[in-house]
Amino acid sequence: MYRGAGPRIAYERRIAGLTQHALAERADVALGTIRKIERGERGVSDAVLDAVGEALDIDPARLLPNRERPDDRVHHAMPELSAVLAAYEEPDDGLCRELPALREAVAAVVAHRLSAQYARISRAAPGLLAELCRALNTAASGERAEVAKLLVDACRATDAVAFKRGAKDLSARLLDLMRWAAARADDPIVNATVAYVRAELHFGARTHAVGLRALERALDRAPCADSSEVLAARGALHMRAAVLAGRAGDGSAAESHLDDARALGDRVREAVYQGTAFGPDSVRVHKVSVAVSLGDDHLGRALRLAREWKPPQVLPVERRSGFYIELGRAQLWAGRPDAAFESLKVARRIAPQHAREHRWVKEDVATLRRLKRADAETLSNFAEWCHAGTGA
Hints:
Elements: H1 6-15, H2 20-27, H3 31-39, H4 46-56, H5 72-86, H6 99-114, H7 118-138, H8 141-164, H9 168-185, H10 188-198, H11 200-205, H12 208-221, H13 228-247, H14 251-265, E1 271-273, E2 276-278, H15 280-294, H16 299-308, H17 317-333, H18 337-350, H19 352-357, H20 359-371, H21 376-386
Antiparallel strand pairs: 1-2
Helix pairs in contact: 1-3, 2-3, 2-4, 5-7, 5-9, 6-7, 6-8, 7-8, 8-9, 9-10, 10-12, 10-13, 12-13, 13-14, 13-15, 14-15, 15-16, 15-17, 16-17, 17-18, 17-20, 20-21
């Protein structure tokens, strides 16, 4: 239960041009509850906070008072997730819904991942992962592969939270569970997806050359067919391999993988395939990522692309936010601190929780504070928001 959120809710409601009655209807919350919250007579539960945030079309974290950390819900979920991961092969008895309900629940957390709603994932993930482990343990042979795929998707959504919160051990355990479940899904596209996600271990450990080799082996094993799903799976691996090659300083490999991704992207429409956005626009976003990874003479390419093109609304918010975070770094390195700060603010508007947790945002805001003392108050507010320099 969160205290002190009433004034923020009232402020955002007025900005949205809503009466208390209209907000209550949109959020499906009792009018009396809204009134008591705004008067400070009661706190706000997770469920009500999420419902009000959705009704106002804003990140629920914006409704919390400054003295409370909006990522506390993520932090508190970690021990419960650890308990689930310790027992996934021999899960406890408990709730196990029918397959249609499980599909719906997993689709919801996947949607939250794509929209960078990490607090919502953290609330749902422990119970959902435990339930999916039970379902996989008891599934009939005809349903086991689909349940395994659902478990892979739920693990991936949960890992997005763990990885961005810097819980590296928990992230590694989730990735191991993904790989374990993928073996039971018996689907080469699922295996390609797991390889794509597991590459984040190498970003975190900065073992970029090792990660590149792992992705190239995954490409050798990936299916070859003309279906959109297969083309997208291979294209996503090439996109991630291009960035890893760039981080490893291998410009030739980065350009080669980017060219392969571009060729595959031109053969499909931009969409989310197996939980990963792929298509011509996603490849353009990764062109910026590769340019920033290579640095120096390549930064101009990122800046030119940003002048000519902006990520469209069809892309998931996490990917659009990531584009502006990468662009901000390119602008900072190119000696354009004002433009860099504007890009970081755009990233925050698009996906607040994603920007808040991104390591580069913290690093670059700290650098901007040193460079731009004339704008110290605005930068300080931004730095406090993303916990820059706190090690959070």
